[in-house]
Amino acid sequence: MTLCKVIGTLVATQKNEHLKPQKILIVQPIDLEGKLIGRDILALDTVDAGIGDTVLIIQEGQSAAQVLKNKKVPVHSVVIAVVDGLEVAE
């Protein structure tokens, strides 16, 4: 799982038929202090996240298929949780 910040949405006029009901988000990995790190990622939204939300994503095709309950969906990254809070013990 990767901690990310939602930085945008992707609009597509044509989609794979299995993706039509899903929203595609643009997310960027963050560190535990909330600083943006790494490259942007496109992820299928399963939890109704929005721009500015901190989310957890999974990045693995088989895991994505299990979350979506559909092995035919051509997806690599899926948003699986909106993070309400984060506490790091020192």
Spatial separation of the terminal alpha carbons: 21 Å
Low-confidence residue ranges: none
Strand content: 35-45%
Main sheet: strand order: 1-2-3-5-4
Number of structurally distinct domains? 1
**How would a textbook summarize the main sheet?**
5 strands, mixed, barrel
For the secondary structure, the number of strands is 5
Shape: globular
Do you know the CATH topology?
OB fold (Dihydrolipoamide Acetyltransferase, E2P)
Order of helices and strands: EEEEHE
How big is the Rg? Answer: 13 Å
How confident is the prediction overall: mean pLDDT?
A: 88
Overall helicity: under 10%
Question: What does the secondary structure layout of this molecule look like, with pairings?
Answer:
Layout: E1 2-10, E2 23-29, E3 41-45, E4 54-59, H1 61-68, E5 77-82
Parallel strand pairs: 3-5
Antiparallel strand pairs: 1-2, 1-4, 2-3, 4-5
